[in-house]
Specification:
- The structure holds 2 protein chains of 2 kinds.
- Chain A has a 6-stranded mixed sheet, sandwiched between helices. In chain A, strands 3-2-4-5 form a 4-stranded parallel sheet, with helices on both faces. In chain A, strands 7-6-8-9 form a 4-stranded parallel sheet, with helices on both faces.
- The two termini of chain A are 26 Å apart.
- By secondary structure, chain A is of the alpha/beta class.
- Chain A is built from 18 helices and 14 strands.
- By secondary structure, chain B is of the alpha/beta class.
- Chain B is built from 17 helices and 14 strands.
- Chain B has helices at residues 26-34, 48-62, 75-80, 83-97, 108-112, 117-128, 148-163, 182-194, 227-231, 252-260, 273-287, 293-313, 324-337, 353-360, 376-386, 398-403, 428-450; strands at 18-19, 40-45, 69-70, 101-106, 136-139, 173-176, 199-201, 238-242, 264-267, 317-321, 340-345, 369-371, 390-393, 408-410.
- A 5-stranded parallel sheet of chain B has the order 12-11-10-13-14, sandwiched between helices. Chain B has a 4-stranded parallel sheet with strand order 3-2-4-5, with helices on both faces. Chain B has a 4-stranded parallel sheet with strand order 7-6-8-9, sandwiched between helices.
- The chains are: A alpha/beta, B alpha/beta.
Chain lengths: 457, 458
Amino acid sequence: MIELLPERRAQVVRKAAGTPAADLPCGKASTAGSVSQRACVFCGSRVVLYPISDALHIVHGPIGCAAYTWDIRGALSSGPELHRHSFSTDLQEMDVIFGGEKKLEAALVELIAHYQPKAAFIYSTCIVGLIGDDVGAVCRRVGEKTGIPVLPVHSEGFKGTKKDGYRAACEALYKLVGTGDLSGISPHSVNILGEFNLAGETWILRDYYKRMGVEVVACITGDARIEDIRRCHGAKLNLVQCSGSMTHLAKMMERDHGLPFKRVSYFGLEDMSAALYEAAKFFSDDPTIMFRAQQLVREEIGAIYPELQRYKQKLVGKKAAIYVGGAFKAFSLVRALRLLGMETAVVGSQTGDLEDYRQLQEISDPGTIIVDDSNPLELAKFCLEKDVDLFIGGVKERPIAYKLGIGFCDHNHERKEPLAGFVGMLNFAREVYASVASPVWQFAPRRASRGKEAIGT
Amino acid sequence: MNVIAEDEEPCSKNFSSTRNACKLCTPLGACLVFRGVEGCIPFLHGSQGCSTYIRRYLISHFREPMDIASSNFHEESAIFGGSSNFQQGALNVMRQYQPQLIGAATTCLAETIGEDMPRLLHDLREKHGPRVTAPIVTVSTASYRGTHIDGFHAAVKALVDQLAQPGETTGAVNLFPGMVSAADLRLLKEIITDFGLNYTLLPDYSETMDGETWLHYEKLQSGGTPLKAIAATGSAKASVEFGRTLATGETAGACLLKKFSVPRHLLGLPIGIRESDAFFQLLSELSGHPTPVKYQRERGRLVDSLIDGHKYVFEKRAIVYGEEDLVIGLASFLCEIGVTPVLCATGGHSKQFEKALREAAPLLPADSLVKERFDFAEIAETAPALEPDFFIGSSKGYRAARDLKVPLVRVGFPIHDRIGGQRVLHLGYRGAQELYDRVVNALLDAKQETSTVGYAYL
């Protein structure tokens, strides 16, 4: 009924017991006409830099790219909210013919004068590369004129995949790193990379580290200020959560500033605890940090465990499909679902790499479908085949689930409930429960018909 | 590429940039139209991001699947042309979806490198003839030319231009409603049917974008204007087109008039009493039947309720924004009920806006602001001095309304912060009734909320 395109077959594997992990040909451009769930280079840059709330983010191009990214993420700020605006040069036909440099320069000068940002990011969109605007030169001129960093982001949509956009964002950020004052930074200090303060998650994590006695110099980019990024090289360790987006920045900081990095995840009890212990182990010169970390983990888990167990009783044996942007999040979700007694039957991502998919196969149960760069038809096919009860994904996956009478849990940038941290695990369990246990499913035709078969009518 | 001189016009804005746009890009409108055709899949010739962003934006409003294919340009396609990507993409879509039609819209990227769509189609057929299982309609939608509503009208026009056939004149009527809600489309079908007319409604996403939950998976949601009905638009006895700003535009109705001499009737969007009267009057003429009693009663109840509630709304000040023709319809309705639209703003720039608006709403005070090419930052900056009592428009005006602590009546597209945007009814007497009740109740609600007394009897 639903057939995989020949070009796509190698990007789908089924975990087989006792065989070595297969290599997925990932990281390549999406197949034309496959209706990929991925976005573009611009999207990759935009999502990474978006939460920096005291910077001006201006999209150089026609209106669409700016309009579709206006105030869409749940990334909160404890101070300025410049990031919630959408600024665009809104290029018109004559700009395309004669070039958009003048308009960009005028736009920048006016916006900087009006909004007084601490820095400006200028995102190039598809046609900027084609019409030959020298965005770098405009940025230099405006930077000199205004005295703030004006940073080009080379994010032309067609020049690669979303991952190349992450890289372009890291390159732009890296121009700021190393330019700030390091005084007063604790010897027990970290940066959190790849955490975006969706629904205030950064604040939850900052609180944990504070209670352990570890200073967070910068969270990049959740609730970030330009000044934090300038001085983040003064921290002693980088903790990289969304590794797909931020490993490049961490590697540059390791190379030039000797800052080691560790991959962590803040989703689920096991990964959350491990993330805190990583930092505590690193600062072994002060054993009280580990002591406090253990105490914190005990307290936090103790506080939520009874309620988690209640949800587990209701959820045990249910099956889930996961399709998310970055593969690292998928690992945490598989483990978090397991903690709730649930099985992951389908798991995939837009931007996972070879190693990610190997690891995913290792932690998955036999029979699990693992997929790279999937699309609506494939995802529907897998959901039907595995007869899942829950789908975890983003807005674009939601209707696939709902139309088939499958519960859905949003784990994307738009979400408004914190899912990170220990309290986040409880929120996650509640949401999974609400998604699976609602009485509305009894009326969904697929479910209703299943019920009839069961009672033999 | 056609050079349009109007883009050169100096504009009197304080900012060269657009801040929080009150418009979207052209291909979005085209994609929505194509999902309103039976078995049609939208296909964007450009970067992967365009289709993904537009999908997410439409899904967040309609809460329905919205599959849009992409030819997924890479660097080589941008340099050497996107022909091979287009071919591969089109063949893959046909193979996977078995569509009845592909609606191919260009993006700014394809337009800038000068992609010649007829040639791409020709190459595709030449090279892969037997594998080309569906016709392809193309539309040029460069996002640096116009807004989403221009893309919408351009796609409707492309469909009739490329699919309509000549034939013996039938008694059927073409209706080109413009970008209205799924509930509006259902109402229009009900009305025309009640007049006893056969019709082609284009587009018709009333089922595809507001459908049921499935028993079996549907690759493309069922519903939409059948291709046969689009072919028949060339032999209809008349076209009815909504949109006062379209008078001089190259629209579907204008195209059918020119090619097949199908008479074109251009009306404003039937929002409020007089614009709806004009629509019912026209249907009455076209069908030879009086307005059915059911609608006479609807009109009667509407008038009765306007009288019941007139004191609550009289001289209340409204900020209205959105697509030009929607704003014109809403302003016309608000003036009828005694509300003063103090600012009518649109991100569009047809240059017909103010003239058409004042014709539709003769009661609009001369000092009411009417702004083309406006954005939400400008709306927010202009609003405080206007002391509005409420905003009416898409959910994107929420923050501006919230800053002033006045209610927002959510209409049009998009509604991203409430459920049911696709079911908001705007058109006809029934739509006016719904709008009226919502406006009055929003004002009563605000009055109650801000009162220290807490009256439960208003």
